UniProtKB/TrEMBL annotation:
PANTHER family: INSULIN-DEGRADING ENZYME-RELATED, NARDILYSIN. Belongs to the peptidase M16 family. InterPro entries: Metalloenz_LuxS/M16, Pept_M16_N, Peptidase_M16, Peptidase_M16_C. This is Insulysin. Residues 263-471 form the Peptidase M16 C-terminal domain. Residues 98-217 form the Peptidase M16 N-terminal domain. GO terms for biological process: proteolysis. Residues 1-21 form the signal peptide. The lineage of its organism: Eukaryota, Sar, Alveolata, Apicomplexa, Conoidasida. Keywords: Hydrolase, Metal-binding, Metalloprotease, Protease, Signal, Zinc.
Length: 1242
């Protein structure tokens, strides 16, 4: 059961700072192209190691931390695991290994090609060549020579594609509608077989690779890992620079007369061979059909033998160092399962006896921290001899699981707990970087400060802790077996109830394993089977134990190395002390660090009973007409899945100060989710950045308390996250139902009232943590900073990270004031709660009330609390700022086009617009014009409006050029789309796309799993959009009214074309300046020149000239107000003449005079003028259509009497009753009987 996926989607929507801690657990779960998520989400520690190529979305940690190109989370769809899955494996006549997965319950198809060639195969004089090959593959083939044709073909046929390059492999993966699988696979295979490799195409794509590297430069964590790899022995391929850049692929080869195009062809001939390729296909067809599709596709690739890469490794099966005897690995633990606990009763004194006795010397590397990075420390253990073994065992039985648990667990005596309790660190994350020839196991720590004394204490504690752990593995079989026995039990439960898996990840990982371990296809298919037999007779086998001992033998203090971000002044160092890491143009020092053997700093390592939280009762409660007459199972079938009862949540309790929404176990999963939203008083929050800072610190205090509560259950799937955003505390809890009550009882006792007030130590730790969060920009990209700034302009009660960073330096944030806020402000609030899953409504009501009674001391009404809103901007605004990211030379432009408040039709139309423009915008700005590695456009919700975001960043283009190109690209796309749909066939295509894209964002089709259900309705609860049947209504409104394509493009035109009604917020982020980078950028002009030649030769629409840009910007921005970020507080409200009318502090938010807020009667309806324009009908005809819509609308409300609904709306309009009237109307007739809390009738 993927609880983390549920929590993470919610935390992204809410802009949770603590999203960071979840990233390592849900690395492949984030949906692509979610622009508002980009605006509000924070990055993970190890976010930087997976980089996009073809479709830009947020970066997350991957299993392989050094993948170049796309990471697997770029797919928005999750594949449903089906009990009807069948699998077949065979080798094609030309030698390609093929795995087929027939999943008859899937709505999608996917395939992945894995090529046994990565940057280990780069020639020494051409770093980045394999990565460049990955890029070039997407730019066409002999049959399809146009550079943008693949993207256009894929978009037309509903597919999504991406790729990544690792040290050993290059993997290409595609998600496709099932009926288009053969067509898309055949097309892509031709590109794989014979990509276009002419000099102009290659040179242009070198520019893209260089831009990707420039995007990576400020990512300090990526730098730390690459620097760690660079410390490998001189002859190790791990030292290679896998990304490549302008110097390695253009400048140096020209100086040395090396032909890069010829080298690419040689690499393709030596590595892209049939014996060095694997293919995995997943789809809803039977195996015979999938086999026919596969064979026809791969037959175009001739039989050939690799001279480099994975296929040349002599024995990829007998990778174990001790024995070739195979254990039963027919079913293996899937890679998603982590953090399962174990215990021991050994005393600290006994452990001290087996610790090393003499001080040891480790290697300490220091690099400059910069002003945008937290005090990070990376402690790692390299291993050159056991890499293939570790790769095999990790794929087969999750060899790192117990280490990860002991390091990261938030309770007991984990390494994290010991570091945190001593005030040495805020965060800690385990990582492994395993390749065929070199491996690193490590820990990334956010330290409390950069002092050398703190670093010494951390190094001592960590290395001694790992030494103890290592010795326990060697000497305590019972303890080790107990851990893995319970790990297996929990993994089986998780696997059984795991509803969704990332299809792209499944096929890609399977393709990797199939190629690396061709004689063990059971490893490739492990994700599709229950892991119930991975132990031999309930214990680790002798072979597994030996491999594990071999692993921990490498984790000794004398083998540890430390990389530290330092504030030390390097100018005082001699030239002999300074070293240089060329790819990132940084200096570092290398010195000895003496590690003490003492374990006096360690607390007791005793841990409670082993996995006492393993759920014992997994039964699903039964709600039926007998025990709950008002719960009717009249539901629906969604894609073969029976969804019992009405799918919307029911309001089971409401008054002026609390609303509880519930839905029972319609998904048949023994788990429960709770979203608890506490909205503070508008009189406190509005215009009060100091109060918001205290609230954010308080959220950190409470999140730590919650983590301590769930620590005993975290190994059993329980997760919780709490944060503060836009005037509301949001807490989300997920757990198996048998553990849920215990967790609720712990949570309710965590609230800080009476004798449970936070201590000054708790406050200081939280304050330090918060300062670290808001001062760190090393884990974000320039365009993300721009989106954050733009959001602070138009969203109510939202402050950008830079604002918070600057404010906390000026304010006196202290413990006594914090206690005052707890008593006076954080104890009051209005609450919305959503509780969903394996629980009846009576217990749901009791649990929520239990939390409510402890969290809320002073209830307030909804009218008194903060409301989400969008500023009514009467003019366009440009905000200029310096890029705050250290060593980031990228300029970034983010343009936000705001819509008026939207009704149902608008939601459908703007969603369609976002889908229609995303691919052509990318192809124009990124692929054709080569503006920057990051380029995207899309539309997302900013309740009650929507926002079209266009963003691009580049170290080579000026701000004016980037800004001009966004405007010009959108205009060209606008006219192209109008022309495309201005025909009879175009009209047919338009209606198909509208039906697919428009209602899709709210569709019930997405609610067939508990995780998707919770993510969908939690977002609505958090933003207080209580129009739960919105998806049905959007679909109905789209079907009835949206007939004219021109109406959609008029909407797009009104957004992007200058007018007095357009509302535009632009952020210009100016990159850091540096002489070295400037010279590189000037030199790279030759790349841009070659790109323009390619544009001309391929008859691609060229970018506007400088003169044209001058005219475009004058036209677009003639009446704009331009202001520096530090003066932003003056621009919250402007008059129509573009003059400052009121400062932010002068506005009256409580009366919502300047903000549009969500209005159910408007956002859940269709405006008559909108309906008329969309349908192109007369006044008389539109009345008829409106009657049809109203009739279908009441039908979707499941037999509510029309008079009841009309009376309710009239009461709302007259404002005679609470806003909650329309929340519980569907349950109103249930309130008079004892079954009030059973559910919604109908």
């Amino acid at each position: 059961m993927q609880f983390l996926h549920i929590i993470y989607l919610i935390c992204l929507f809410a802009n949770f700072n603590s999203c960071k801690g979840l990233k390592s657990e849900i690395s492949k779960k984030l949906q692509a192209h979610s622009i508002i998520d980009k605006a509000n989400a924070s990055e993970a520690f190890l976010a930087s190691f997976s980089n996009k190529k073809k479709r830009w979305s947020r970066n997350l940690i991957n299993e392989d931390l050094m993948k170049e190109g796309a990471s697997l989370e770029s797919f928005s769809s999750l594949g449903k695991l089906s009990p009807n899955t069948e699998i077949d494996y065979f080798t094609a006549e030309n030698g390609i290994s093929i795995l087929l997965i027939s999943d008859r319950g899937s709505r999608e198809a996917a395939f992945a090609y894995s090529i046994g060639c990565g940057f280990y195969q780069d020639p020494d004089n051409l770093p980045g060549l394999a990565h460049l090959m990955e890029h070039v593959t997407f730019l066409g083939s002999e049959q399809h020579p146009n550079a943008t044709e693949w993207d256009e073909f894929l978009s037309t046929n509903g597919g999504i594609a991406n790729a990544y390059t690792t040290s050993d492999l290059t993997v290409y993966y595609v998600l496709s509608p099932p009926r288009k699988l053969k067509l898309i696979l055949d097309y892509f295979t031709t590109m794989l077989k014979s990509p276009i490799m002419d000099e102009k195409t290659v040179t242009a794509e070198i520019n893209a690779v260089n831009q990707e590297h420039e995007k990576n430069i400020p990512n300090i964590i990526r730098l730390m890992l690459e620097l760690a790899l660079f410390q490998a022995p001189q002859n190790s391929p791990a030292r290679k620079f896998g990304t490549g850049n302008f110097d390695t692929l253009f400048k140096n080869p020209k100086e040395k007369n090396i032909n890069v195009t010829a080298a690419l062809k040689e690499l393709h001939n030596s590595c892209y061979t049939s014996d060095n390729i694997s293919l995995v296909i997943k789809g809803p067809y039977n195996l015979s059909i999938l086999k026919e599709i596969a064979e026809q596709a791969v037959n175009v690739i001739p039989s050939s033998k690799a001279t480099a890469g994975i296929a040349t490794i002599e024995d990829r099966t007998s990778s174990r160092p001790y024995s070739s005897t195979k254990i039963d690995n027919s079913v293996i633990i899937p890679s998603d399962f982590n953090n399962i606990g174990f215990s021991t009763v050994d005393s600290l004194g006994e452990l001290e006896k087996i610790i090393h006795e003499e001080p040891v010397v480790s290697k300490l590397i220091k690099i400059k921290r910069g002003n945008s990075s937290p005090p990070l420390i990376m402690i790692y253990w390299p291993d050159e001899s056991n890499s293939m073994t570790l790769m095999h065992e990790s794929a087969e039985w999750q060899i790192f699981s117990f280490i990860k648990y002991y390091i990261e667990n938030k309770g007991g005596n984990s390494l994290y707990t010991q570091l945190y309790n001593k005030g040495l660190a805020h965060k800690i994350e385990f990582f492994d970087h395993i390749t065929t020839k070199y491996s690193i196991i490590g820990i990334l720590i956010t330290a409390s400060d950069t002092n050398d004394e703190t670093t010494q204490k951390i190094a001592n504690l960590v290395t001694n802790y790992m030494d103890i752990l290592s010795n326990k593995v060697k000497h305590e079989d019972n303890w080790l077996n107990s851990f893995y026995q319970n790990y297996t039990k929990m993994a089986n439960i998780d696997f059984k109830y795991e509803e969704t898996r990332n299809t792209a990840e499944l096929v890609s990982q399977s393709a990797e394993n199939l190629l690396i371990f061709p004689k063990e296809p059971e490893i490739a298919i492990s994700a599709y089977h229950t892991p119930n037999k991975f132990l031999s007779e309930n214990n680790l086998s002798e072979l597994q134990k030996k491999v594990l001992i071999s692993l921990v033998d490498t984790l000794t203090p004398n083998r540890a190395s430390i990389i530290k971000l330092s504030d030390e002044d390097f100018s005082s160092k001699s030239s002999e002390e300074i070293r240089f890491f060329e790819p990132y143009d940084i200096k570092y020092t290398l010195q000895d660090l003496h590690i003490s053997p003492s374990v006096n700093e360690l607390e007791s390592m005793n841990i409670d009973e082993i996995l006492s939280c393993v759920p014992k009762n997994l039964s699903i409660i039964n709600l039926n007409e007998t025990n709950c007459p008002s719960y009717q199972e009249n539901g629906r079938t969604v894609s073969g899945t029976k969804i019992l009862s009405v799918y919307e949540p029911c309001c089971i309790y409401t008054d002026e100060k609390l609303a509880i929404f519930w839905k029972g176990p319609i998904h048949k999963v023994p788990a429960i989710h709770l979203t608890f939203v506490q909205r503070l008083a508008s009189s406190f929050i509005n215009n009060n950045i100091s109060g918001i800072i205290y609230a954010k610190i308080h959220a950190i205090v409470m999140d730590k308390r919650y983590q301590e509560v769930i620590a005993p259950f975290s190994a059993c799937g329980a997760t919780t996250i709490s944060d503060f955003n836009r005037g509301r505390f949001i807490t989300a809890i997920d757990a198996y139902s048998s553990n849920f009550g215990h967790i609720i009882n712990g949570i309710k006792n965590s609230y800080p009232f009476g004798n449970k007030k936070p201590t000054e130590i708790e406050f200081n730790k939280a304050l330090s943590n918060f300062k670290s969060q808001i001062s760190s920009f090393s884990d974000v990209l320039a365009y993300e900073v721009g989106i954050d700034i733009a959001s602070s302009i138009y969203l109510s009660n939202y402050y950008s990270k830079i604002e918070l960073r600057d404010a906390i330096l000026k304010l006196n944030i202290n413990y006594l004031d914090y206690l005052h806020h707890i008593d006076e402000n954080f104890s009051e609030g209005y609450v919305d709660a959503l509780i969903v899953g394996n629980i009846d409504s009576i217990n749901s009501h009791e649990y929520v009330k239990l939390i409510y009674d402890h969290a809320i001391q002073k209830p307030i009404s909804y009218e008194e609390c903060v409301h989400d809103g969008v500023l009514d901007l009467p003019a366009d605004i440009i905000v200029t700022a310096k890029n705050p990211i250290s060593s980031d030379y990228n300029n970034a432009i983010v343009a936000n086009f705001l819509t008026p408040p939207v009704d149902l039709l608008d939601t459908s139309i703007y969603s369609t617009i976002g889908e229609l423009i995303s691919v052509p915008f990318y192809d124009t700005v990124r692929t054709s014009w080569q503006d920057g590695y990051v380029a995207f456009a899309g539309v997302s919700m900013a309740t009650p409006s929507m926002v079209l975001v266009g963003a691009v960043q580049s170290a080579d283009r000026s701000l004016n050029t980037l800004e001009c190109h966004i405007f010009d690209a959108l205009k060209k796309i606008f006219h192209s789309l109008k022309k495309q749909f201005d025909s009879e066939q175009g009209l047919i295509d338009f209606h198909k796309r509208v039906k697919w894209f428009g209602p899709a964002s709210q569709s019930v089709q997405k609610l067939e799993t508990l995780s998707s259900y919770v993510a969908h309705f939690s977002k609505m609860i958090i933003s207080h959009e209580i129009c739960f049947y919105k998806g049905d209504l959007i679909e109905t409104a789209t079907d009835i009214f949206l007939k004219k394509p021109i109406f959609t493009f008029e909407k797009l035109g009104s957004l992007i074309e200058p007018s007095k009604n357009r509302r535009l917020v632009i952020v210009q982020l100016e990159g850091q300046s540096d002489d070295a980078i400037s010279s590189t950028s000037i030199s790279s002009n030759s790349l841009i020149s070659d790109t323009n030649q390619r544009i001309s030769s391929n008859q691609i629409t060229p970018p506007p000239t400088d003169e044209q840009c001058h005219d475009i910007l004058n036209e677009q921005l003639s009446s704009v107000i331009k202001i520096k970020l530090e003066d932003k507080s003056q621009i919250t409200n402007l008059n129509l003449n573009g003059k400052l009318r009121a400062t932010r502090s002068q506005l009256s938010y409580s009366k919502n005079q300047n903000y549009s807020i969500y209005n159910d009667k408007f956002q859940c309806s269709v405006r008559i003028n909108n309906a008329k324009d969309a349908s192109g009908t007369s006044d008389k005809e539109i009345k008829s259509l409106m009657n049809i819509f109203i009739s279908k609308r009441f039908s979707s409300l499941h037999n509510i009497k029309e008079s009841e609904y009309i009376n309710s709306v009239q009461n709302i309009l007259r404002e005679k009753k609470s806003h909650n009237e329309n929340l519980y109307i569907r349950c109103k007739d249930n309130y008079s009987n004892k079954h009030t809390y059973c559910g919604c009738k109908g």
